[in-house]
Write a structure and sequence with these properties.
The protein has a 6-stranded mixed beta sheet with strand order 3-2-1-4-9-10, sandwiched between helices. With 499 residues, the protein is α/β, with parallel strands linked by helices. The chain has helices at 34-45, 61-68, 95-101, 124-136, 154-162, 179-200, 203-209, 228-233, 241-253, 328-331, 342-349, 364-386, 421-428, 445-462, and strands spanning 2-7, 11-18, 21-29, 54-59, 75-80, 102-108, 141-146, 168-170, 216-219, 225-227, 259-264, 269-275, 278-279, 287-288, 291-292, 301-303, 309-312, 318-323, 394-397, 412-413, 431-440, 471-479, 487-496. It is 32% helix and 25% strand. Among the domains are: 74-166, 3-Layer(aba) Sandwich (Rossmann fold); 430-496. The longest helix is centred in the C-terminal third of the chain and has 23 residues, at 364-386. The two termini are 14 Å apart.
């Protein structure tokens, strides 16, 4: 049996899965520290610890830290870029995030031209002095960003050795030739290192205290597994793990390979598409919390509407973005509070029943108008997500799935255990091996791509996948037409069931 857990900002969900069957599920308020909520989920789900083969955890912890600009390390940026780009770091970032994260930038000699030639001489002594100046400014962590370092990472690695005792990120590990986007990713990754380490430092011990002596995995942006240690080292890889888990879990609960997924939570609604059992990746540059990044993310449309969204009725109803989230059962009017929420409207319309809820006196036409506005927002987002494929089934999941009215249409499906789709998706996550590199494909293109595919497969097997079950789940080749030699970025994901 496998336990899947998803830690959201409002709820911590859990499922006990045997094969692909959900044996039991639960939804509990998210706690701080996070391991208390995980311990409560394990207590709720586990009868015989010896039967548990694995525990898999997904989380929006890193995303929430960025959105709220809390718990982040102060980061200094060391650019290995010769004369250096004229643009300062943190371009177009939200001011609150800049103030929370960025302490300063030092530019040293080094970096490369697009053809691989060294831009200017590189010096470890100059690097050491730059590091010392950033530490004097109050840097708690470092982001090391070399010009065209994905082509040659030797200079970044050399600086990394100088930073062995300091939290740091080498930008080439996050892929992408775009300097500023790669710098953004490295900056955020370093800023998140304490947040993830403190948030999950006691997770293994929590699992052990529950009597479970099995591997503990985390899920990442593409819906596959990484170790807890990898997640703490590269926390940006977990930024969209929550929506990805929900999308994949929803499709499997509905027994579909292709579908539009609508995940309604306590604060927001995420909408995306699953193709071939995997969440569709964004074709555009990814962005989190107003920061442009250089690595692939699931294609997610988010609405600030959820079960706990605060509602103002009238001719022009206002729903969200403020929400009472995990305090819904305390603050909403149906439970004796003073706040009118979307859940109150759904209860009034008879879309759901909750034990202990009381009747709230509301004008029927105002409620219908407000709830209709919510449905229209969701339907417009679905149309944007479909990109012309209007025949896909629409699977509604999440804690707020029960808010949706019955008889929505034949395309709409609310599967069993819809409230725990995110945890179910985590439980089903496969082991992956990834390759993200920049190489020349001018000659022997087919042979080189085959070699990279085999490398991704070998990495998946090394990570614990069953070799006979591993397949190439995603391959993307982006040519750099401005570079000589047929240079291209090749991104590969091999995935398979655990051995």
């Amino acid at each position: 049996m496998i336990i899947g857990i998803d830690i959201g900002g409002t709820h911590t969900d859990g499922v006990l899965v045997q094969g692909r069957t959900v044996v039991k599920s639960c939804k509990l308020p998210t706690t701080f520290p996070l391991e208390k909520g995980v311990a409560a989920v394990l207590k709720e789900l586990v009868v015989d610890p010896s039967l548990i083969q694995e525990v898999v955890v997904g989380t929006t912890h890193a995303t929430n830290a960025i959105l709220e600009a809390r718990g982040l390390l102060r980061v200094g940026v060391l650019r290995i870029a010769g004369q250096g780009p004229a643009i300062e770091p943190c371009l177009d970032w939200p001011n609150s995030l800049v103030q929370a994260v960025f302490v300063g930038c030092e530019t040293i000699g080094g970096g490369f031209h697009v053809d691989g030639r060294e831009l200017t001489p590189f010096s470890l002594q100059e690097a050491q002095k730059g590091i010392e100046r950033l530490l004097e400014k109050g840097a708690e962590a470092m982001a090391v960003v070399g010009l065209f370092s994905p082509l040659c990472a030797d200079q970044e690695r050399a600086v990394g050795e100088l930073l062995a005792a300091i939290p740091h990120t080498l930008s080439h590990r996050l892929g992408g030739m775009g300097f500023l986007e790669r710098e953004n990713a490295a900056l955020l990754n370093s800023a998140l290192k304490r947040c993830l380490k403190e948030g999950f430092a006691d997770l293994k011990e929590t699992v052990r205290q529950a009597g479970i002596e099995t591997p503990l995995w985390m899920t990442q942006n593409n819906g596959t597994l990484i170790s807890l240690e990898e997640a703490i080292e590269l926390p940006v890889l977990t930024l969209c793990a929550g929506p990805t888990n929900s999308f994949v879990g929803a499709a499997h609960l509905a027994q579909l390979q292709d579908a539009v997924i609508v995940d309604i939570g306590g604060t927001s609604t995420d909408i995306g598409v699953v193709q071939g059992g995997f969440a569709r990746r964004s074709l555009n540059q990814s962005e989190v919390g107003g920061v442009r990044l250089s690595f692939p993310m699931p294609d997610v449309l988010s609405l600030s509407v959820g079960g706990g969204s605060l509602v103002s009725l009238g001719e022009t109803p206002q729903i969200g973005p403020r929400s009472c989230a995990s305090e819904l059962l305390k603050r909403s009017q149906s439970f004796g509070g003073s706040e009118l929420t979307l859940t109150d409207l759904a209860l009034h319309l008879g879309h759901l029943r909750i034990q202990g809820a009381r009747s709230v006196s509301l004008k029927g036409e105002d409620v219908e108008r407000a709830f209709g506005e919510v449905l229209q927002q969701i339907q417009r987002a679905i149309q944007r997500a479909e990109i012309g494929k209007s025949d896909l089934p629409i699977v509604v999941v999440g804690g707020g799935a029960s808010l949706m009215p019955a008889g929505m249409g034949q395309r709409y499906v609310i599967p069993p255990h819809a409230g725990a789709a995110n945890a179910y998706g985590a439980a089903l996550a496969e082991v992956s091996g990834q390759v993200d590199t920049v190489i020349s494909l001018e000659q022997e293109r087919h042979k080189k791509l085959e070699e990279l595919q085999q490398l991704a497969i070998d990495r998946a097997v090394s990570a614990g996948a069953l070799r006979s079950a591993v397949r190439i789940a995603h391959m993307e080749v982006v040519s750099y037409s401005y570079m000589p030699g047929g240079m291209a970025r090749v991104s590969l994901v091999a995935a398979g069931a655990r051995a």
